[in-house]
Amino acid sequence: MPDGITVKMDNGGTRVEVRSQNQAGLLYAVPAEASWVATPEQLHAHAIAGFFTDLMKIESPEVSRLMEKWGLYFRPLELEPQE
């Protein structure tokens, strides 16, 4: 399997495989309470952006430390106008 991020969709949801030489994991995105508005093709992006938006609102020192440890920073973006 190549390194990087691979998105695989099926009927029940989406699998996001994240792989590097020294770390690897699989993130599952399935329909849930907060993702009812997302189309199946956008489910994973909707869930990940929503999760990180909510996570940043917690303002937890532990969450901040983990984000800094892994060099991850998240900032919600303005949504594009719908036509």
Q: Please give the count of helices.
A: 2
Q: Describe the main β-sheet briefly.
A: 3 strands, antiparallel
Order of helices and strands: EEEHH
- How widely separated are the two ends? 39 Å
Q: Uncertain regions: pLDDT < 50 for 5+ in a row?
A: none
Instruction: Tell me the overall shape.
Output: globular
- The total of beta strands comes to 3
Oligomer: single chain
Strand content: 15-25%
Instruction: Supply the helix-strand structural class.
Output: alpha+beta
Spatial strand order of the main sheet? 1-2-3
Mean pLDDT: 93
Fraction of residues in H or I helices? 25-40%
What Rg do the Cα atoms give?
Answer: 15 Å
What is this structure, in a nutshell?
By secondary structure, this protein is an alpha+beta fold. It has helices spanning 43-57, 61-69, and strands spanning 4-10, 13-19, 24-29.
What does this entry look like structurally?
By secondary structure, the chain is an alpha+beta fold. The chain has two helices and three strands. The chain has helices at residues 43-57, 61-69, and strands spanning 4-10, 13-19, 24-29. It has a three-stranded antiparallel sheet, with helices on one face. A hairpin with a 2-residue loop joins strand 1 (4-10) and strand 2. It is globular.
Throw out a few tags for this protein.
2 helices; 83 residues; single chain; alpha+beta; 3 strands
Topology:
Blueprint: E1 4-10, E2 13-19, E3 24-29, H1 43-57, H2 61-69
Antiparallel strand pairs: 1-2, 2-3
